[in-house]
Structures are given as structure tokens and as C-alpha cells.
Specification:
With about 450 residues, this protein is of the alpha+beta class. The protein is built from 16 helices and eight strands. α4 packs antiparallel against α6, α8 runs antiparallel to α11 and α11 runs antiparallel to α12.
Length: about 450
């Protein structure tokens, strides 16, 4: 029996009700949950949001500085009108140049990173980076207040506004210099895969909040098939074919409890749902649920996101490794960097209680069936494709073996079967790839560095 969790509490895994979306729904009650979620997810990766906010802030800030200037009785800048106008024109020119360089460099970075690593990092990493967004917003804010100050400077100087323009101009210059260094570091493969891994670890902790208790999870939390006989009714997806991004589990539990039935979410998070395909399977009294209310609980989009999809982080890292192993790129060291982060994610998942697919109400009664990946799924995604494409490379064969052996030593015994299966598949693959005995023996040595680490080190746990 799954752990009872009261509807509306944070105990539901990945309920995806962020404070901003809740505030949006309270201010605009006519906005559906899935629309609010889609809008919030879009704004997180939209570069125009910060400049628009900066525009509004600059208009208000300029008026405030002008209003407060009459209260200032001392000279803050000691600039004549001609000198103040020169300052404003210089700041406008600098910030405009910063913006052109920033967005031009970002476009180049997107092309390079998408081509050499994977296109899936563009929306999940580059466009959501706060430093890039805030730097662009600061430049727009500074340019606009400088324009406003230039427009107001004729026979006299607004000391407070002029001083603010000088300060923000200096801050924009400093942030631009920092951005150049930051962008160069951000585009390194090791930094990209680390950011993806960090985001994936946050999602895993949210989706699986309980640590593994050290014993076998009963039936991996799966629902008895006898409980889910033929559904009483099926709710089909209405609209464009899209990917399921997240589900409002709290709403589904409440709807199922109110009608005394069970709601089964047909696709998994990350599945492509075509028009008129099953979205929800209704059992028992849940057949009386309103279709529109249920569809409101499902947010769909054009591509997968990481908010409620722990497998997507693995998918991105595996794609990075596969791209690096392709003949066009031929960069196995980057693939080893991706395996380092996959190792981190697998170690975290292996120590979590994968609660399966049951969600219950206050009374512990099954209300929602919501399928999530199990341990075998995570291991297969992490290893199978990389082994098939990269086992012919010594770095990959040795790093993959080091990861599997380390996880076997460090994770509970219940996790070992899937890891040993991958280790066995690797052992059976290598002889066909290395005809020379010396190369085969070298490929069978685990090495956390891939190739170059000492073969005599004590195993790590």
C-alpha cells in the first residue's frame, strides 16, 4: 500500500504547483492550471521577459528619480549640462553595444552547443541561464534610464538621475566583462553536463522524496492488474498532438476522491500524445468526472521539459555522449564527462525509494495511477545506447565498467541485478570489438578517467 498523502499537500510527488503559478491562478481565476503552467514554463526560457520588465522598471525609476531630485540640495556629480549629456550618450552607446554583442554571442553559442552537444540543452540550460537574462535586463534598464535622462537634460541637470545613470552604467560595464568570462566557462562541455545533472538531481529529489529503506520495495509500488480491469470510460486528448509535460496530481486525487473512483493517467511524463489518443482511463465512480476538468490537469507542450520528468536529464546526458561518440565529432572524452554525471544521477536514483504508480487520499485508498520510470528503466537508458555506440572505444568501455562496479558496491543489493546485467552485456560485447588480447585486457579494466587513470587504485564507494 502506498503511503497515504493528503491532497493538496507537498507530499504528492512532483505536483508542479509552484508559488508563481498558484499566485497567477489566484489573481486570474479564469486561467486554467495547464495554461498557467505552460505560460510559466515558457517565460522561464523566454529572453524577452527580462528586457520587458526592465523597460517598465526604467520608466518608473526615471520618474521617481526626477521627483526625488528636488529634495536633494547638494551636487552629486558636479557636471554641467553638456557633460551630463556626454555621459548619457556614452552610456547609451555602451549598453546598446553590450546588447548587440550579448545576443549575437548567444546565437553563436546556441548553434555551437546544439551542434556539438545536443539541441535539447538550448531550452533547458542556455535560455534559462539567469546570468545571461539578468545581464541583458540590466543593459536594457541602464540604456532606457540614460535615454530618459538625456531627454530631460536641457538647461539644468537632475543630479540624482545623473548619478544613477553613472552607477548603472558602471554596473553594466562590469556585468558585461563578467558575462564574457562566464559565457566562455558556460560553453565548456563539463559545465553544460554539470548543469543538466544538477537540474536532474533537483527533479529526482522532488519526484522521489523518500530515501531507500534498504529493503525490497513491495512489487516496486505497482498496482495489482486485477484492480484496474477494463476502464469504465476513457478521456481522449483533444487538440494538437503534443508531449505530456506534467500532471496536476492534487487535482486528480481530489476528483477521484469526490467521485469515489480511480483515475489512471494513460501516458507517462515525456510521452508523445497524438490527437484522440487516451489521456485518462476512468475506473469505478471516476467515470462521472468532467472531461474538461481532467484535461485541465494535464499540461502538454512541443518538447519535453525537466520539471516532472526525471528521465529527461538522463536522456540529455546520453544524447551528449552519443553525439560525442559519433564519427563526425569523435570526442570520447566529452562522452566520459557525460558518463560522470550519469553516474551521479544513477547513484542518487538508486538511493531513493521509487514509489511506483500509486497515489492515495486521506484514507489511504488508491485514487490515481501515475506511472513513473523504475530502476531498470533508468539503468537501461543510462547504459544500453552508450555501450552499443561506444564500447569500441577504450575510454568508454573502461569508464562504463567503473561506473557499474562502483554502483554495485555503493547501492543496496536490490539495485544490483540491473547493474550486473549491464556489466554482463558489456563483457559479452567487448570480445567482438577487440581482436587483440592486449587491447581486450585493457578494455576490461575499470577506470573512472576512461583511459589514463591508475589501474592499481583501491575501489571507491
Amino acid at each position: 500500500m502506498a503511503r497515504p498523502t493528503p491532497p493538496g499537500s507537498s507530499g504528492h510527488r512532483g505536483h508542479a504547483r509552484g508559488p508563481v503559478r498558484l499566485a497567477l491562478q489566484k489573481l486570474l481565476p479564469f486561467v486554467n492550471w495547464n495554461h498557467a503552467y505552460a505560460a510559466w514554463s515558457y517565460t522561464r526560457s523566454a529572453l524577452w521577459v527580462m528586457p520587458i520588465l526592465a523597460l517598465v522598471g526604467a520608466l518608473l525609476f526615471t520618474r521617481l528619480m526626477v521627483a526625488l531630485d528636488g529634495w536633494i540640495s547638494w551636487d552629486l556629480t558636479t557636471l554641467a549640462p553638456e557633460g551630463a549629456r556626454a555621459l548619457f550618450q556614452t552610456v547609451i552607446t555602451l549598453t546598446l553595444s553590450f546588447l548587440i554583442f550579448t545576443f549575437g554571442s548567444l546565437l553563436v553559442a546556441i548553434q555551437i552547443a546544439g551542434g556539438q552537444l545536443t539541441p535539447r540543452i538550448i531550452a533547458t540550460t542556455l535560455l534559462r541561464d539567469r546570468v545571461i537574462r539578468y545581464t541583458a535586463g540590466l543593459s536594457v534598464f541602464t540604456m532606457l534610464i540614460a535615454i530618459g535622462a538625456l531627454n530631460r537634460t536641457a538647461g539644468s541637470v537632475y543630479e540624482l538621475l545623473t548619478f544613477a545613470v553613472a552607477c548603472f552604467g558602471t554596473a553594466s560595464l562590469a556585468s558585461f566583462l563578467f558575462l564574457i568570462d562566464y559565457s566562455a566557462r558556460l560553453l565548456r562541455p563539463v559545465r553544460i553536463v554539470e548543469l543538466v545533472c544538477d537540474d536532474g538531481m533537483e527533479v529526482i529529489r522532488a519526484m522521489y522524496p523518500e530515501t531507500h529503506a534498504g529493503n525490497v520495495e513491495p512489487a516496486d509500488g505497482r498496482v495489482d492488474p486485477a484492480v484496474l480491469a477494463a476502464p469504465a470510460r476513457t478521456v481522449l486528448h483533444a487538440g494538437r498532438s503534443r508531449v505530456l509535460l506534467t500532471v496536476d496530481l492534487d487535482l486528480l486525487v481530489e476528483e477521484a476522491r469526490r467521485h469515489d473512483g480511480i483515475i489512471e493517467v494513460a501516458p507517462q511524463i515525456g510521452d508523445f500524445v497524438a490527437a484522440d489518443e487516451p489521456l485518462f482511463l476512468l475506473h469505478g465512480g471516476a467515470r462521472d468526472c468532467d472531461d474538461d476538468a481532467l484535461r485541465e490537469a494535464a499540461a502538454l507542450g512541443n518538447e519535453r521539459t525537466m520539471e516532472q520528468d526525471p528521465m529527461f536529464a538522463f536522456r540529455i546526458l546520453v544524447d551528449v555522449a552519443l553525439k560525442a561518440l559519433s564519427p563526425a565529432i569523435n570526442d570520447p572524452t566529452t562522452a566520459v564527462l557525460a558518463l560522470d554525471q550519469i553516474h551521479r544521477l544513477l547513484r542518487l536514483v538508486g538511493k531513493r525509494r521509487l514509489q511506483g504508480e500509486q497515489l492515495t487520499d486521506h484514507d489511504g485508498r488508491l485514487r490515481v495511477v501515475f506511472r513513473t520510470p523504475n530502476w531498470e528503466d533508468f539503468v537501461q537508458v543510462s547504459c544500453s545506447e552508450i555501450r552499443a555506440c561506444g564500447a569500441n572505444n577504450l575510454q568508454i568501455a573502461r569508464r562504463l565498467r567503473a561506473m557499474l562496479e562502483n554502483l554495485i558496491r555503493s547501492l543496496p543489493p536490490e539495485r544490483h541485478a540491473a547493474l550486473r546485467q549491464q556489466l554482463d552485456l558489456l563483457d559479452r560485447t567487448l570480445p567482438g570489438l577487440y581482436p587483440l588480447e592486449e587491447d581486450l585486457a585493457l578494455a576490461r579494466i575499470p577506470d573512472p578517467q576512461g583511459l589514463g587513470g591508475s589501474t592499481m587504485r583501491c575501489p571507491r564507494t
